[in-house]
Amino acid sequence: MERLRIIRESRGSYVIQVYGEDHTLGTLLVEAIKRVSNPKLAYYEAVHPMEDIIQVYVKYEDDVDIKEVLRKASDYLLGVIDDFRRRYLEALERRGGGG
User: Fold this and answer.
1) Contact (CB, 8 A) for 18 and 56
2) What local confidence, expressed as pLDDT, does residue 98 receive?
3) Ranges for the DNA-directed RNA polymerase RBP11-like dimerisation domain (predicted)?
4) Confidence (pLDDT) at 99
């Protein structure tokens, strides 16, 4: 099964469905999209409280390569996670906690 699907692309407006995810990824993904591109509008919503599907809405002045935006947003998030992991492990080492 697909985990992500672009369900609408129209004149700089995009709707992306992400399956198997909830508010945690929705919030992170929208913030990452805002950091790596300059959307006019970016937000998400849960499709239904009983389903783990989020829809991300992004609007730009002009058409963009939304797949490239999503790749850059993913790379950004992975970098943040790697940085957090590194800092956390360094803090553990300083306190003698190991890994």
Assistant:
1) yes
2) 60
3) 15-86
4) 54
